[in-house]
């Protein structure tokens, strides 16, 4: 047995091997040590192998899913090894033969299908990353085998991690050669155990088309669209991994769809984390934007909402189509209530379908398909009496395309209450199959059947005392007294019918062919009844999987209805408005609110959220406005920054937004640098992380981008930080020309508004009353008159002596600042707005007498670097040499 185990383990070295032995999955050697530690179960020893104690632990087969859930959550991958023959067959072979076993499935984070192992509201993506030798770009393909989704996208090195995190895969496979590429080390460090190396042949672009065509049973992929070599390699690798993990089973995966480049809002990894779209910075779902806006009532709807939030659109027409659905539903609140009441009864059809196709499903999955189809039909009735907009009309068309014959067959066949496992039987409705009903009657009511036959024999023979009895030797037999035996033995008909079995002192025993057949059928009734049910189960599974395409399409349509109804409910409940989204450079928000903070305040009865306006609209190619936001700590700057970014995301995902009104010119890239964090594992301090993220923004933002920056430069010395912040503001204004919000405590930066015409000064208003600071959380034009840091420190509980000393130091520092105002720097420091005066005047001045003197007047030695001074000397010598 151990030889068999070691042979199977050698073929699966990187996985824990669940080795089936009777009613347990056993683990041995190092697998047992790891599993026992991870699961908190007992580790034992049994025997030796090559002089080494055999460590051993096990889990019951019936509870295996619970243990698998824990192992998968901890990042393990498991090979499930089952017995593949009847133990009786092994005994026939004699000798030391053991029951044949083989791996029937590899359980990995990205290939789960079991209901217990999956979150209903989250997709479970397996992703493949590919790069073709000689090409610069990359491709990503991702599959959710639990729902059949299959998508592909091309990407580049500078946005690779952002595209991966947008999909948020549970597992990503990459060729072992690419996994060792030092250029991608940073990506794999972020992904951690999610990224798994696989053999390079999986990613072979030369065989990719053949692999995909074979999987989808087509001669050519021409009907799928045109894909690049890298896209084909990624798609084929994902399919190869699915085939490897599912062994002989084939999940119902849809044909691959391409995500066209530029169709979704680019959100870099730091921004996704800072804005807490799916999870908070602490990793929790509670407190995220998704949790705040989710009013869906089905698993499919929750997954679609998450997908839309992670990939907002950039096409105004497509966004308007989604917004039209919400607006139409909001005209009739009662309709929304009816829709959601019906949707609440909707099972997760795609995941049930996947389990059935993979051979892991049971009667409840068939019942889920049946109930889902019935609920879908009921739901269409709620759209009567109106003309739904385009998106909802398409959804209704997909629902109407569900095969009515299959729905009727499932409803007529399945019982109202069904067992979890097919082997338990009892899931076929009474009256559906005559033979099955008879077998059930024999199995469940054998005494009543035998009594009925006894009464008939007694009536036919006239022997009222006739009995049908049973013992372990004869089985069932007819017994009459010796005096009455003649009625069963006289006449040719009686002799032919009643067969003598035994004579006792006081009675005679007979049988009939009918009784013998009944005995056999009673003995085999339970087995036969289960066999009939399993045959019906197989037929229903085949019928359901044959209609997988229509079921998937209808399930997707139902998810669209759920998301639309949920967002309409959210808009009514929270008082959201419909945004105007177009191709302009506008970003004008009136009375905007933070969608998460507002709900927290309302839930905790802490008063209303203070709404604020924000107008970053730009004109044509001139670029958008850049707001320089000053104000005290605790004044609400970070909240104001984030809320405007979240409003843009919500608008472009197709949701109403928390504002009085909103006009959003499509944002193509969203960047955020908010908060402080370090990356000690890679040797990055808090300030280094801040500079890396700021560099990414300044190098990538364009005129259609939206940038929010908070406290750039505060992580280093004052003058260093001020200089960096100063230069960053100029770069955003003159080079990136984006719409942006720049919050800072460097009040010196406000002087830049005199030279940078799109820079607007704004501040968070406060009031002082009897020595107390009152934060109004209102944004107003102008400049803050201080940071109020000492007041905040006092509120935090610093000792009074520290507060008083801080006030004294601050007074001295402010006096020094007044003697050296930053205003004097404005005329000289803007690097991108003001050209070097010497260079400009040298071009403007005509050659001739007085030229040298005028050139000298343009020079300011106190404001020149050594290199600039040297260049000025050369310029003067050149001017002196002129005739």
From TrEMBL:
<dbReference type="GO" id="GO:0005524">
    <property type="term" value="F:ATP binding"/>
</dbReference>
<keyword id="KW-0227">DNA damage</keyword>
<dbReference type="InterPro" id="IPR045076">
    <property type="entry name" value="MutS"/>
</dbReference>
<dbReference type="InterPro" id="IPR000432">
    <property type="entry name" value="DNA_mismatch_repair_MutS_C"/>
</dbReference>
<dbReference type="InterPro" id="IPR036678">
    <property type="entry name" value="MutS_con_dom_sf"/>
</dbReference>
<dbReference type="Pfam" id="PF00488">
    <property type="entry name" value="MutS_V"/>
</dbReference>
<dbReference type="GO" id="GO:0140664">
    <property type="term" value="F:ATP-dependent DNA damage sensor activity"/>
</dbReference>
<dbReference type="GO" id="GO:0005829">
    <property type="term" value="C:cytosol"/>
</dbReference>
<protein>
    <recommendedName>
        <fullName>DNA mismatch repair protein MutS</fullName>
    </recommendedName>
</protein>
<dbReference type="Pfam" id="PF01624">
    <property type="entry name" value="MutS_I"/>
</dbReference>
<dbReference type="GO" id="GO:0006298">
    <property type="term" value="P:mismatch repair"/>
</dbReference>
<dbReference type="InterPro" id="IPR027417">
    <property type="entry name" value="P-loop_NTPase"/>
</dbReference>
<comment type="function">
    <text>This protein is involved in the repair of mismatches in DNA. It is possible that it carries out the mismatch recognition step. This protein has a weak ATPase activity.</text>
</comment>
<dbReference type="InterPro" id="IPR007860">
    <property type="entry name" value="DNA_mmatch_repair_MutS_con_dom"/>
</dbReference>
<dbReference type="InterPro" id="IPR007695">
    <property type="entry name" value="DNA_mismatch_repair_MutS-lik_N"/>
</dbReference>
<dbReference type="InterPro" id="IPR007696">
    <property type="entry name" value="DNA_mismatch_repair_MutS_core"/>
</dbReference>
<dbReference type="InterPro" id="IPR007861">
    <property type="entry name" value="DNA_mismatch_repair_MutS_clamp"/>
</dbReference>
<keyword id="KW-0234">DNA repair</keyword>
<dbReference type="Pfam" id="PF05190">
    <property type="entry name" value="MutS_IV"/>
</dbReference>
<dbReference type="GO" id="GO:0030983">
    <property type="term" value="F:mismatched DNA binding"/>
</dbReference>
<dbReference type="InterPro" id="IPR017261">
    <property type="entry name" value="DNA_mismatch_repair_MutS/MSH"/>
</dbReference>
<dbReference type="InterPro" id="IPR005748">
    <property type="entry name" value="DNA_mismatch_repair_MutS"/>
</dbReference>
<dbReference type="GO" id="GO:0003684">
    <property type="term" value="F:damaged DNA binding"/>
</dbReference>
<dbReference type="InterPro" id="IPR016151">
    <property type="entry name" value="DNA_mismatch_repair_MutS_N"/>
</dbReference>
<keyword id="KW-0547">Nucleotide-binding</keyword>
<keyword id="KW-0067">ATP-binding</keyword>
<comment type="similarity">
    <text>Belongs to the DNA mismatch repair MutS family.</text>
</comment>
<keyword id="KW-0238">DNA-binding</keyword>
<feature type="domain" description="DNA mismatch repair proteins mutS family">
    <location>
        <begin position="705"/>
        <end position="721"/>
    </location>
</feature>
<dbReference type="InterPro" id="IPR036187">
    <property type="entry name" value="DNA_mismatch_repair_MutS_sf"/>
</dbReference>
<dbReference type="Pfam" id="PF05192">
    <property type="entry name" value="MutS_III"/>
</dbReference>
<dbReference type="Pfam" id="PF05188">
    <property type="entry name" value="MutS_II"/>
</dbReference>
<feature type="binding site">
    <location>
        <begin position="631"/>
        <end position="638"/>
    </location>
    <ligand>
        <name>ATP</name>
    </ligand>
</feature>
